[in-house]
Design goal:
It is a single chain. The protein is mainly alpha-helical. Helices cover 53% and strands 7% of the residues. The strands form 2 sheets. The chain has a 3-stranded parallel sheet. It has a two-stranded parallel sheet with strand order 4-5. Helix 4 crosses helix 13 and helix 9 runs antiparallel to helix 12. 41% of the residues are buried. The structure holds tryptophanyl-5'AMP (TYM).
Length: 338
Amino acid sequence: MTTPTFTPRVFSGIQPSGGLTLGNYLGAIKRFVSMQDEAFETIYCMVDLHAITVWQDPADLRRNTRELAAGFIASGISPEKSILINQSQVPEHAQLAWIFNCVARMGWMKRMTQFKDKAGKNAEAASLGLFGYPALMAADILIYHATHVPVGEDQKQHLELTRDIAAKFNHDYGVDFFPLTEPVIEGAATRVMSLRDGSKKMSKSDPSDASRINMTDDADTIAKKIRKAKTDPDALPSEAEGLADRPEARNLVNIYAALNDQSVAEVLRDVGGQQFGAFKPLLAELAVSKLSPISSEMARLMADPSEIDQILKRGARQARDITAPILEKTYEIVGMVR
Ligand code: TYM
């Protein structure tokens, strides 16, 4: 069989399980925005079905889904250039996930570090959905035959599993139907760390609000969190190697570089030799200037969620033009009578 060529297509998703953080913005959304101007079809998704693998209050889930959509749009994702959807309005994601539940192996799923982290010590009490989560994620991507998936570093293992599922499906059925998707993990901030502890990822689930910058934080809050961010007593180095054993310093420089579309080397050329007392106000000013316009646009969009609901409805219709034929063909390959 000849290897099919797949349309260059980008898919990525974010869970509406709380507010957006600077980690989500720099690790994911900023990349989503730039990829819509490259030679790709782009589809971006609020993964509401993933969110309920851990219990969500229904009113919060509804609000968080709309707020996440507002965050996407306010950050520069254009509903004219990209398909914007919430997962549950495109049922083919869940339908393909069932088939992938039957392709993925228990042993593969047991190795997933995100499940181990999220389930914690009491894995017996975790939902079955949390365990099967990566099969749904593979379905999100492969129901579009997506070729590229921009994500932060923490999603790498899930993308390797996605490739394993695609390869096993193709092998088991003797087809070349699903592409082996490329992860796109690029830029200065693929792993933004907590402001309180440079060894922990910045996360919406950290109990300390001071550990993260939320996209809805106001200017004073952003400045205060940066002022209080953990650092070390030394001045900033002039070259990137000087950050190797300084996780907190490295994190702040990475954040600066990513916000300002610079490399770490370029940033250090300008600020090398400075103490944190001088660098932190620069970083705070930069963060406020980049994030404030986004949070005010989010607030404007949230004032009338009907506009967001319309965008998501239209996105679902466009998405299903792609997903319905791919699901149909999958069923045919598997042997379902149609
Ligand atoms: P989620 O919702 O945890 O995070 C969304 C995106 O933000 C990135 N990210 C970070 N990047 C850098 N530094 C951080 N501190 C940081 N925190 C989060 C994540 O890497 C991710 O790109 N399983 C996914 C959602 C998902 C998905 C998909 C992604 C479901 N289906 C299909 C891609 C394709 C998740 O929980 O992301």
